[in-house]
Amino acid sequence: MTSPATEPLKFAYWVPNVSGGLVVSKIEQRTDWSYDYNKKLAQLAEKNGFEYALSQVRYIASYGAAYQHESTSFSLALLLATERLKVIAAVHPGLWQPGVLAKWLATADHISGGRAAVNVVSGWFKDEFTKLGEPWLEHGERYRRSEEFIRYLREIWTSDAAELNGDFYRLHDFDLKPKPLASEGRPHPEIFQGGNSSDAKGMAGRVSDWYFANGNTPEGLAAQIKDVNAVAGPLGRRVRFGINGFIVARDTEKEARDTVREIIDKADREAVEGFGSAVKQAGQSTGDKTGMWQDSTFEDLVQYNDGFRTGLIGTPEQVAERIVELKRAGADLILGGFLHYLEDVEYFGQRVLPLVRELEAQQLEPVA
Ligand SMILES: Cc1cc2nc3c(=O)[nH]c(=O)nc-3n(C[C@H](O)[C@H](O)[C@H](O)COP(=O)(O)O)c2cc1C
C-alpha cells in the first residue's frame, strides 16, 4: 500500500445543487443551482482534474439557500452526464431507511460503472427534522445512529445473508442483489462522513472510509487526524482525510484578498446570523463543545463550512503552496468551493493544479 505522502492529492468540488452559491453574500456569484449549469460544471470539472463531486443535502432554506435540489437524484443525474467523476450523495440517517439507500447506491453504482459514493451526515439543522415531522436526537445519539447506519451499509453490501441487530436498525438474512460493483481496493461505494466533534472523530476511526473536515488550518487539520487515527490505528483501519476550502485564486494576491473582502462586506447579515444560531446544534451542543463551527466568527460563517479558514486565497503559486502544506498535515483530498464556478474551476485546473503536481513531485525527489 502506497503511503499518503506519495499518492497525488485528490480534488473534489462542492456541487451547487442549492441556490445562493457557496457564500452567504449579496456579491455577484456567477454560479447557478440548475441542472443544466451543474451538468456543464461536472463535465468541466472532470476535465480539470477533479476526481470527486460532493452534493449537499438540504430540505429547507438555510444559509441563504432558498431552493434545493435533492441530493441523491441530482447525484445520479451528474453521474449520467460524466465519465470519470465520482459523485458523493449526502444523506441523513433518520430520514433514510438504510436498506433503501443501500439499494439506491447499488443501482447508481451499476448505472455509473462504479462511481457512486455516499456522505453520511449526522445533522445540525433541527428545524429541518422537526418540520419534516421527524424526531431530533441529541448529538451523541445522532452519531450512534449514523454508526449503525454505516455498519448496516457495509454488511448489506458485503454479505449474502446480512445480519444486524442494532438499537436503531436491524437486518435479517438479507441478500441484496445485485451488490454494488467491487474493484481493487474498493469493495463497495466509498463511505464519507461530515462532522468534526469527538463523536464524529470516534465514528470515523471505527467505520468510515473518509473523514471530511470543515475549513481549518494545517495545524487544526493535523490535530483532528491524530484523534481519528488514535481510534483507527488499534483497529488496523486506514481512514482518509478531506478538508473543505473556499478557493479564490487570482492573478494577483490583492485581487484575491479584495474579492474575499467584498464577499464579507456584502454578507447577508440576517441569513448568516440565522445560520449561526442553527449550527449551535453541532459541536457547541456536545459535552466538550468541540466540532463544526465550535468557534466560527461571523466572517467564517459567510462561507458556510468555514472555507475561508483554510487559506486557499491568493495567486496560483500561493494557493498551490498552501495546498501542499495541507497535504503535509495529512490531507488526502481538497474539497473546493468557488465564487464563479465555471470560470474558477477552469482557472484552478489550468493555473493551480499543475503547480500542485510540480510541488508534489519535488517533495518526492530524494534529498541530495
Ligand atoms: C464536508 C462536509 C459536508 C457536509 N454536508 C452536509 C450536508 O450536505 N447536509 C447537512 O445537513 N450536514 C452536512 N454536514 C454536517 C454534518 O451534518 C455534521 O454531522 C454536523 O454538522 C455535526 O457536526 P459535528 O459532529 O462537528 O458536531 C457536512 C459536514 C462536512 C464537514
Automatic annotation (TrEMBL):
Residues 11-332 form the Luciferase-like domain. GO terms for molecular function: alkanesulfonate monooxygenase activity. SUPFAM superfamilies: Bacterial luciferase-like. PANTHER family: ALKANESULFONATE MONOOXYGENASE, ALKANESULFONATE MONOOXYGENASE-RELATED. It comes from Nocardioides luteus. It holds the Pfam family Bac_luciferase. Keywords: Flavoprotein, FMN, Monooxygenase, Oxidoreductase. This is Dimethyl sulfone monooxygenase SfnG. Gene3D superfamilies: Luciferase-like domain (3.20.20.30). One of its GO terms (biological process) is alkanesulfonate catabolic process.
